[in-house]
Amino acid sequence: MRGFKASSIMRHLLSFSRQVRCRVVIAVVAGVVITATIAVVRACFPVPENYPIPSGSRDGWMAPAPRNWPSTPTMHLRTTGFGIQMSTATAVSDTPFRLMRQREVRVGWPLYAFKWSVNEYSDGIGYHLADESRILHGIRLKANSEDEASQWARIPLVPIYGGVIVDVGIWSAVTYACWTCMMWLRCRMRRQRKRCERCGHLVMPNQLQCTECGTATPVRDVPRHGSAIRGLSCPSSVNRGDG
Ligand SMILES: [Zn+2]
Question: Could you tell me which residue, 164 or 51, shows the higher pLDDT?
Fold first, then answer.
């Protein structure tokens, strides 16, 4: 008895929510696209004039550093802007004289969702990629440019999983909410104009179905004897709607 009840409830929920499930899937896809787009666009346009300010001492490098580097950097610099955090950590070795530098950028909004890191050293003339290092999952946009902005502009490829989950969840929810509101408004406007809620075709007051798509129509003039019950309310027709 209980099993029968549970399965019938489940069946009811599944049949009721087929369009809802479809909309949830599309909203999640939109959430992923929005999250990635914000991160990539923000990473392509770092703020060069907003140069890092000291962030206090920290214990180690932000990302794996080459083995011949000191275990602890001597200085950390960090700046944050809308949807971006740019960090540098540096250490000095005497023989040979080298300034080791690691840079990391985190991007995303409202939480940081992606990052890249790079290990470099300076011989006093300019910075070079460190011997045992490589760009850690960031694609540089202008390979030959030396200016500060393009040095920081890379497409990040390392996900920050907590940030990805939260951002995708938020943007999916926003997409779903906006979509549902738009469908509900459209449905309501069509009802007020005495048009089919599903396809917008004009429906005569005495028609129980849309002649264009067959959708049952609410008959407000006859509130008793079942006509109004037979008609569809806005939310359910939204669920089976064409959105
Ligand atoms: Zn219709």
Answer: 164
Q: What is the distance in A from the centroid of ligand 1 to the CA of 217?
A: 9
**What is the distance in A from the centroid of ligand 1 to the CA of 59?**
66
Report CA(201)–ligand 1 centroid distance (Å).
Answer: 5
Which residue's structure tokens are 């907003």?
Answer: 50
Residues 6+ apart with CB under 8 A from 75: 54, 89, 90, 91
**In degrees, to the nearest 5, what angle opens at C-alpha 180 toward C-alphas 114 and 212?**
130
In the chain, pLDDT over 70 holds for what percent of residues?
76
Query: How far away, in angstroms, is 240 Cα from ligand 1 center?
Result: 12
CA of 239 from ligand 1 middle (Å) equals 15
What integer pLDDT is reported at residue 36 of this predicted model?
97
Residues with CB under 5 A from ligand 1 (ion): 196, 198-199, 201, 210, 212-213, 215
Instruction: Write the pLDDT tens digit of every residue in 11-38.
Output: 766 655 777 888 899 999 999 999 999 9
C-alpha span between 217 and 210 (Å, rounded): 7
- 190 by Cβ neighbours in 10 Å (0-12 / 13-18 / 19+) ranks as buried
Residue 231 pLDDT more than 50? no
**3 state SS for 48-77:** CCCCCEECCCCCCCCCCCCCCCCCCCCEEE
100: number of CA atoms within 13 Å, CB side?
A: 23
Q: What is the pLDDT of residues 178-191, one digit of tens each?
A: 999 998 999 899 88
Kindly report, residue by residue over 127-153, the tens digit of the pLDDT: 888 765 567 788 888 776 677 777 888
